[in-house]
């Protein structure tokens, strides 16, 4: 059944799901997105989330992603061949679901917080999660990424988008000062150099006096295995950035593939079980939670 659902995405990637309001919102043309560009990688991630949402028992269940894929005009069949969703959709879903739980928990405890989503890509998290009315949510990414986002999602209420590289300094002036704040960096910091990460953290902690940071960090294998050199930084332990700035305190961490038992398909579940049994594979990408 699940395999048939995945095949449906390939044969007609623009078909909305039953009851999908995307069909009434109109198509958006992303065919100008260059293959292999930053924006292309975000479309790949969107497609993986879309595939996972169509399973009978999804882990993340990002139906916004399925709606967006139905709206976006792009060569989704070619994307499917490139990203191999039969396996890779589950890694994306496991990591995303863990972030979702921690973000929701923080907003529940701090219903007037600021949420700062760094490198938001084409993620629908601000719309998909239950966000308290007083929470101020900022999605930040490169200007060309935000330009794509604006074709999918409108700004409204306390939701804002900022088009800037997170390594630039000026975009912080658009944010409130103080706290509490939740800084979310999913699949982001490994693409910065250590010096860029240090500088970014110092500026954020100077701006906000209390809050938490959620970030997944790769092991040192990350840069070594990156043939293109796009991955710039890996760390042996989450304590490294607390030594860069002693205002940060590590309060929790776990492998991003924790919860693999929820994978509904037997073959992929077995592969992730094998990965979980190998320390180097299990710890390749870990989700860290910091307080300050």
In short:
The model is unreliable at 1-14 (pLDDT under 50).
Walk me through what this model shows:
This protein has 292 residues and is of the alpha/beta class. It folds into 2 domains: 2-87, no CATH class; 90-291, 3-Layer(aba) Sandwich (Rossmann fold), CATH 3.40.50. The protein contains 13 helices and 9 strands. The protein has helices at 2-11, 22-25, 38-53, 63-71, 76-83, 85-109, 125-128, 143-149, 194-207, 221-225, 240-244, 266-277, 279-282; strands at 28-29, 72-73, 114-118, 136-141, 159-163, 181-185, 211-218, 249-255, 285-291. The strands form 2 sheets. It has a 7-stranded mixed sheet with strand order 5-4-3-6-7-9-8, covered by helices on one side. A two-stranded parallel ribbon has the order 1-2. Strand 4, helix 8 (143-149) and strand 5 (159-163) form a beta-alpha-beta unit. Mean pLDDT is 92; it is low at 1-14.
Describe how the helices and strands are arranged:
Layout: H1 2-11, H2 22-25, E1 28-29, H3 38-53, H4 63-71, E2 72-73, H5 76-83, H6 85-109, E3 114-118, H7 125-128, E4 136-141, H8 143-149, E5 159-163, E6 181-185, H9 194-207, E7 211-218, H10 221-225, H11 240-244, E8 249-255, H12 266-277, H13 279-282, E9 285-291
Helix pairs in contact: 3-4, 3-5, 3-6
Protein name: O-methyltransferase-like protein
Pfam family, one: LCM
Organism: Mycolicibacterium celeriflavum
Order of helices and strands: HHEHHEHHEHEHEEHEHHEHHE
Q: Which regions have little confidence, pLDDT < 50, spanning 5+ residues?
A: 1-14
- The helix count comes to 13
Strand order, sheet with most strands: 5-4-3-6-7-9-8
Evaluate the radius of gyration. Answer: 19 Å
Helix content: 40-55%
The count of strands amounts to 9
Secondary structure category: alpha/beta
Overall morphology: globular
What's the number of structural domains?
2
> CATH homologous superfamily name of the largest domain?
Vaccinia Virus protein VP39
Indicate the mean pLDDT.
92
Kindly provide the name of the CATH class of the largest domain: Alpha Beta
Instruction: Write the CATH architecture name of the largest domain.
Output: 3-Layer(aba) Sandwich
Gap between N and C termini: 46 Å
Q: Enter the CATH topology name of the largest domain.
A: Rossmann fold
GO molecular function: methyltransferase activity
Biased composition (Acidic residues): 1-10
Pfam family, one: LCM
InterPro entries: Ppm1/Ppm2/Tcmp, SAM-dependent_MTases_sf, TcmP-like
